[in-house]
Amino acid sequence: MTPQRQEKKNLAPVYGLTVPTPPSAAPDADESFYDENGYLFVTDCPSPLRDKKISYYRAIREGLFDQFCKQRYALYAHSHRGTLEKKRQGLQDSYPTLKAKQQALTHLVRVLQHHCFDLRSLSATAITGVVQPFFEAGWTVRDVLYALERRADNSAYNTRGAEGMRSVKKWLTLRMNAWVREESILESRTAVENHEYQKRRSSLGDLLAQKPSKKVTGPSIEVKRRIKVALLGEAQARHQYPELF
């Protein structure tokens, strides 16, 4: 490209910025898998604002129960997104009604799903049936998430998450049952850490109590007298500091 009547030599190239055409969905593809620009987006965590909602009966009839559960989680997360980030949530000592306790359990289950992607394919009822005894034993969300990845002896599993498991619910049950001994739920990781902290604190306090305190004393009268005599002379020192003689 050169102006008219200009010699065409020793010219610099002209670059133009081009934008590729967005891919278009195939005619037989589901439009819900593409956004408004035609790009494919991830649907493992469906959004209630994007995907068409699936009814419970359709999910059972067509084998879409995992997608139905993910949508139920997404609906709850959309309206409670400000309270799903806390990992140390747990049950209170008491609730005014049984319904209030059940709502608290449901929220704890949704928090688990928020932090554990694999659990989103299960219903809140199915998860509650497995983890409710642990929450009632004083466990928190953080403790359950810890139990899903580590054994009671603090050793990690060889696999992370439910990848490779035929049943996510069975994976959840096996991981939680590893923290049960003789039909008794073991102490949670938070409780163990608190005990270790209190033990270290008490041992440190005992050590400080046993250690004798050093009494700071000044120089003796003999040393003070020698210093004053060296600085002022004996006569002047006797006159100014008679208590040293």
The N- to C-terminal Cα distance equals: 110 Å
Return the structural class.
mainly alpha
Which residue ranges are poorly predicted, with pLDDT under 50 across at least 5 consecutive positions?
A: 24-35, 39-44
Rg calculated over all Cα atoms:
36 Å
Strand content: under 5%
Mean pLDDT: 80
Identify the strand order in the major beta sheet: 1-2
| Count of helical stretches | 9
The number of distinct β-strands equals 2
The major sheet is characterized as: 2 strands, antiparallel
- Could you spell the SSE succession in H and E letters? HHHHHHEEHHH
Inertia-based shape: flat
Helix content: 40-55%
Helices and strands, with pairings:
Blueprint: H1 56-62, H2 65-79, H3 98-115, H4 124-136, H5 141-147, H6 168-177, E1 180-181, E2 184-185, H7 189-210, H8 221-232, H9 234-240
Antiparallel strand pairs: 1-2
Helix pairs in contact: 1-2, 3-4, 4-6, 8-9
Summary, kept brief:
With 245 residues, this protein is an all-alpha fold. The chain contains 9 helices and 2 strands, in the order H-H-H-H-H-H-E-E-H-H-H.
Summarize the structure in words.
By secondary structure, this protein is mainly α. Helices cover 45% and strands 2% of the residues. The chain contains 9 helices and 2 strands. Strands 1-2 form a two-stranded antiparallel ribbon. A hairpin with a 2-residue loop joins strand 1 and strand 2. Helix 4 (124-136) runs parallel beside helix 6 (168-177). The longest helix has 22 residues, at 189-210. Mean pLDDT is 80; it is low at 24-35 and 39-44.
